[in-house]
Design brief:
This protein is an alpha+beta fold and about 260 residues long. It has nine helices and seven strands, in the order ααβββββββααααααα. The protein has a four-stranded antiparallel beta sheet with strand order 3-2-5-6, with no helix packed on it. Strands 4-1-7 form a three-stranded mixed beta sheet.
Length: about 260
Amino acid sequence: MLGCELLCFYLANKLTFMVLKTSRMQFRKYQVFLVFLIFFATDLQAQSSKMFRAAVIQDGTKEKVQDAVVENLRTSAKKRTDNFGIFEIPASIGDSLIIHKIGYQDVYHKVATFDDTRIYIKLSNQLLEVKVQGGRKASKNFKEASHAYAKQRGILYEGKPPLALLSPFGGSPITFFYELFSKDAKRVRRLNSLAAKALIDEEIALRFNRLMIKSSVPIKDDEVDVFIDNYSPKVEDLRKWTDFQLIQYIMESFDKFKRKP
């Protein structure tokens, strides 16, 4: 592809030089040819570009990161991840993408394949000031990190102060506004939110997991994670389903998964 672009660039420059030596009638012929070259190069580039699809996931957890901004550094095209952490963006092999969101470290990803991909993004260093321990559930790690961080920063109400603090009789308006608007309070709320979402993911994973999926449908090992990312049921539905209903859901979802181009 790069060779074709270079060839078109060379021919266009060569043509420009020739045009300077031609008559007005010949110029029109060269002008038509130059337009053709431009469209040819553009068409070649368009043919090499496809929709790259990936899921952005919180590193160390199964948390899908929604509303993250994804930018193709070559084309400047931008997309946002949906409620399931998934995005689609036009890209070519070799393009570099940058994914960023407040509270997370920027991550770069080089497009090497158009297969469904997982991209892991880490919390920002500010949120990682409180270390989490390995070998435990993510929900517990986030909750304990929230408590420790709140204690370090003097956040007494987990960033959700009661209105009673605004009372002129024994209240503390300064504490109220600090708990509501400070960066430290926002970080505590963020950690609590991650803990709550991780707890839901863990509840879903107790039933909708690799073992259940592989025992229900003939799915390949390298397809299971992508299937889970795209067809994980809502926890409200899963709580109502019997095992038979769950298997039915897996089978129906697998049919959709296999039909997907």
